[in-house]
Amino acid sequence: MSYNNKKIGLFTATSLIIANMVGTGVFTSLGFQALGISSGFALVFLWVVGGIVALCGALIYGEIGSRFPESGGEYNYLSKIYHPALGFLSGWVSVTVGFSAPVAAASMAMSKYVAYIYPELPKPFFAAGIVILISIMHGIHFGLGKNFQNIFTTLKIAIIVVFILTGLFAKSEGDVSFAVNTEASQSIFSAAFAISLYFVGYSYSGWNAAAYMAGEIENPQKNLPKALFLGTGIVVILYVSLNYIFLKVAPLDELKGQLEVGAVAATHIFGKTNGNIMSIIIALLLVSSISAMVMVGPRVSEAMGKNYRILSFLAKRRGDTPMLAIFIQSSISLLFIFTATFDQVITYIGFTLNLFLFMTVFGVFVARYKNNPPQYSGYKTLLYPITPILFLLIETWVLVYGLIYKPLESQTGLATVLSGLIIYYISQSKKQHKI
C-alpha cells in the first residue's frame, strides 16, 4: 500500500467530520436527557434541533473556510477576521484542552463500554493505552493515519446503519410516546429541554473538523464546503435515527442516568450474548473518533508554532507528521484520564469551545463588511443572513446558560483563555510573533 498522497480528498475530509461527530455524545448522553424528559417526541426533537444548529454552522464554516483556506481552524479564521490575539487564544484552547479533553472523554467512554461486559477492566489504564497506541500510529506516517481513518469511519457508518435497520424490526419494548401531544410541547419548552441541548450540542461537536486541515485538502474552496455539509448532514440523519431506536427498543427507566445507552439498547435488540458483542463493536467505533481528533488537533498546534517563536517547538515535524504536537496533545489527554471524571471533562470544555464558535460564525458578517479577502468570489453561505443569525441566537442561549448554571466549569474555561492571553503578550513583548 502506498502512502505518497499528501493531500486529503473529499471522501477523507467528509469521513473526518463524521468520525469527529459520531462517537462519545450519541452513545452516552441520552440517559442524562431522559432524567428530565419523558416524551419520546421531545427526546428525538432534541437531536433534530441540535442537527439544525450543526448544519447552520457547517454552511457558515464552508464560506469562512473558503475565504481563508489554510489549516488551523478558528485560530486561522479569528486571526484573519479580527486580530491575531483572538486567533492565538482560540489556538491556545485547542492546544491545551480543545482536542485533548475530547480525546480523553472518548477513550473513557470506550473503556466504560468494554467494562460493561468485563467489570474487572482497569478503565483508566485501558483508556490511556488506546490513546497512546493511536497517537503512535498517527505519529509514524501521515498516509497510514489517513487510510486508518477512512477504513474505521466506513465501518462506523456501516455498523450504525445495521444497528438502526435491525432496531426498526426489533420488538418494541420502549414505553415512551412519540406523539405530538401536550406532554411533548410542554417538554420542548421546559428547562430540562434547554439543559439537554447543552449535551446534544457537545454530541454534534466536530462538524467543523475538516476546517482544521483546510491547507491539506485538495481544492479546499470547492471540497471544504461540500465536506462540511455532507458530513454534517449524514450525521444528523444517523443521530436522529439512532436515538429513536434507543427509545423504541428499551424502557426509559433502563436508559435513565446510564452512560452506556448503546449497550442497553443492544441487549434488547440482539439478546444478552449478541448484545455484548455489539457493545464491544460500539466501543471499537469510538476508536475512529479518537483517531480523528489525534489527526486534526496537532495541526492547530503546528500552525501556532509556525507563527509564534515561543511555541515554535510545536511546529517540529518528523517526516510528514507533527509528531511533537501529537505527543503533547496525547500527554494532556492522559492527564485528564487519570485526574477527572467523564462529566467533568465534558462540562469543562463546553463553554470555551462555544465561545470561539460564536465569534467565528459572527465573523462571516465582519468578513463580508470588511471585504476580507478582497474580491472574494467563492462559496457563499446558504440562506444568509438567516443561517448565522439562527446559529448565534442558540449559541447565545448556550453561553448564558453555561455562565448561570455551570459557573465553576465556565469560569475554569475562562481562566484557560486568560492564561493564553498572558502567553500571547509575553510573545509580543519578546517580538516572537512571526506573522
Short account of what is shown:
With 435 residues, the chain is mainly α.
Describe the protein in words.
By secondary structure, the chain is mainly alpha-helical. It has one domain: Amino acid/polyamine transporter I (Up-down Bundle). 74% of the residues lie in helices and 0% in strands. The chain contains 17 helices and no strands. It is globular.
Could you tell me the number of beta strands? 0
Detail the poorly predicted runs.
Answer: none
What does the oligomeric state look like here?
A: single chain
**Largest sheet, if any?**
none
Structural class: mainly alpha
What share of the residues does DSSP label as strand, in percent?
under 5%
From the 3D structure, determine the CATH topology.
Amino acid/polyamine transporter I
Q: What is the count of structural domains?
A: 1
Mean pLDDT: 81
- Please report the distance between the alpha carbons of the first and last residues: 39 Å
Radius of gyration: 21 Å
Please provide the ordered H/E string of secondary-structure elements.
Answer: HHHHHHHHHHHHHHHHH
Share of helical residues: over 70%
Helices, by number, come to 17
> What is the CATH superfamily classification?
Amino acid/polyamine transporter I
CATH class term: Mainly Alpha
Overall, the morphology is: globular
